[in-house]
Amino acid sequence: MLNGIDIVVSEYLDDTRRAQVRFPRSKRKRIRKKWRKDPRNWKTWRVPVLLRYTPPSLFGGTTAPRIVTNDLGYAQLVAALTAAQGGQR
């Protein structure tokens, strides 16, 4: 819990990005099409996910907001907070 905000780390919140990292020297359409099909020319990265969520209250009161994140997002959040506090934790 951080300043009244719950932090929930979920293993189900996983997101990936995929991009082509190798390209042919030739710019011809046929060659580029061949390279596009080859999986060795692509790389997949896991990316951090941070979602702010305020659950609804059952009795009309206020509830504490939550940050739902994956393990990469949690590591980024902790690093940013320790940097903001001057390295103290």
Describe it.
The protein has 89 residues and is an alpha+beta fold. It has one domain. 26% of the residues lie in helices and 27% in strands. It has helices at residues 29-37, 71-84, and strands at 6-9, 15-20, 42-47, 50-53, 66-69. Strands 1-5-4 form a three-stranded mixed sheet. Strands 2-3 form a two-stranded antiparallel ribbon. The longest helix has 14 residues, at 71-84. The chain is elongated and about 65 Å long. 3% of the residues are buried.
Total domain count: 1
Count of DSSP E strands? 5
Query: How far do the termini sit from each other?
Result: 14 Å
Give me the Rg, rounded: 21 Å
- Oligomeric form of this entry? single chain
Mean pLDDT: 85
Quickly list its features:
89 residues, alpha+beta, three-stranded mixed β-sheet, two-stranded antiparallel sheet, elongated
Concise summary:
This protein has 89 residues and is α+β, with helices and mostly antiparallel strands. The protein has helices at residues 29-37, 71-84; strands at residues 6-9, 15-20, 42-47, 50-53, 66-69. It has one domain (6-84).
